Amino acid sequence: MMFTKIISIIHTWGPLLIQGMLMTMIVSCCGLAIGLCGGTLFGIGSCRKLKTLWTPLINFYTLVIRGTPVYVQLLIVYYALPELININLGPLQAGIIVLGFNSIAYVAEIIRSGINAVPGGQWDAAYVLGYPRIKTLTLIILPQAFKNILPALINEIIALIKESSILASIGLLEITRVAMNITAQTLDPLGAYLCVAMIYLFLTTTISFFAKKIEKKMEFAHDHN
Amino acid sequence: MITTKNVGLTIKHKTIIDNASISLPKGSITAFIGKSGAGKTSLLKCIAQLYTNYSGDIAYQGVSLKTLPPQQRVHAIGYVFQQFNLFPHLTVLENCIQPQLVNGTSIAAAQKKADDLLDALDLAPFKKSYPSALSGGQQQRVAIARALALEPQVLLFDEPSSALDPQSTQALASLLKNLNQKGITIGFCSHDVSFIKNLLDRVYLLENGKIIDQYQATDSQMPPTSSPIGYFLSHG
Questions:
Q1: What predicted TM-score, i.e. pTM, was given to this entire model?
Q2: 8 Å CB contact between B76 and B68
Q3: By CB atoms within 10 Å of each CB, which of A2, A38, A93, A149 scores lowest?
């Protein structure tokens, strides 16, 4: 019964579901790109060994972003910000900004803890061998930190994909919004929402699968060769 | 070659080194001995510029090390850590090549230098291994090869025998003598009496951050037991 409902939804609404899935992937990828780039810079800027004048600001940013719900952040950016600075953002732009800037805070914390977990002796060894700071980071510290933080980063990517569903509330035609529209027409929430849940599960499982492969490869290189 | 003048180091209101003036003449083997917490490692770290907030001056061939650019510093002083601090994500060969590349050596020259050093230190079979697959003694030899790859004039060792079994300690002493004969000035800190006796040349005894005695061996003669260094070496 449930299975036939899902098949019927896919059969009837397939193209719209694919369109929604693509929109979810686009908004998640853009958010992730912002999150990874900004989060890496913020994480480096707030780690113990490289404390800068910006560190208190970075800490304040992560405190605010992590301490408030992403849904509230979305409402502020989509509804309140245009009034404040007189810029109108479409649902896609607002969605990318919120997911990206929210992700920055979480990625920064992950990167910061990963860098701090690399033994201080590695910084010292790089220093006595004449590595400049930037090369110490890129050639010595970040590769080691990356191995430790990979599971946490994957969690963040998965969380970001799932969080993108809140963009349905501002009318972005991503996968959850598509399901809501289908339900409005069919008056049958079970099939549409189950179908959407399966699509989310497919996306997150695919990411976990490849992440585990990368993790195993790195473990082999470092621990068993 | 290296001289320190009235070097002092205070960390968190605690005096770690107090007015230490020492010298590591060219071609010498200098030991810094003393009990744990005497300030031996801190003094070596000051010389290697791992601590730069010291007072007084440390000079290499008359030039203050604080003013020496990193590219010149690495060719002046090499440092082998007590825990070796090899880069775990790089193979043995990469550990020896990458620092050279960072300091401007060409890939071909860096590769040749690393190969030669690893062969000379009996590490040829481990070139493609990661440090975690090696024993303590092998890791230490990789750390020595990595330091030597930059051709330093002075090589400093922090507690070099602390992670080694007696056989490896003996081999290390021979290796240090060998390096010294090739013209490399050696400085090390240790509280391993048998290891110090094996390399007896110039000795400084530290206590609570102060140099309390110094000794220059002639014909590897032991210092008199009435002196603080002689007492330390006979009682440990």
A1: 0.85
A2: yes
A3: A2
Tell me, which fold does domain B2-86+151-235 have in CATH? Rossmann fold (3.40.50)
Q: Are A166 and A160 in contact (CB under 8 A)?
A: no
Give the Cα separation of A176 and A20 in Å (integer): 8
Question: So what's the ipTM on this one?
Answer: 0.91
Exposed, middle or buried: residue B167 (CB in 10 Å: 0-12, 13-18, 19+)? exposed
∠B187-B109-B107 over CA atoms, to 5°? 110
The domain ranges of chain B are: 2-86+151-235
Residue type, B34: G
Interface mutation vs chain B, best among A128, A137, A148, A217, most B CBs within 10 Å: A128
Domain ranges of chain A: 2-224
- Cα separation, B45 vs A75, whole angstroms: 54
Q: What is the pLDDT along chain B (236 residues), one digit of tens a residue?
A: 899 999 999 999 999 999 999 999 999 999 999 988 899 999 999 999 999 999 999 999 989 999 999 889 999 999 999 999 999 999 999 999 999 999 999 999 999 999 999 999 999 999 999 999 998 889 999 999 999 999 999 999 999 988 788 888 888 899 999 999 999 999 999 988 888 888 888 999 999 999 999 888 876 677 777 888 888 888 76
For residue A120, what is the nearest residue in chain B, using CA coordinates?
Answer: B85
- Domain A2-224 matching CATH 1.10.3720.10: the answer reads yes
Of A180, A215, A212, A211, give the one whose Cα is nearest residue A195.
A180
The contacts of residue B36 (CB under 8 Å, 6+ apart) are B191
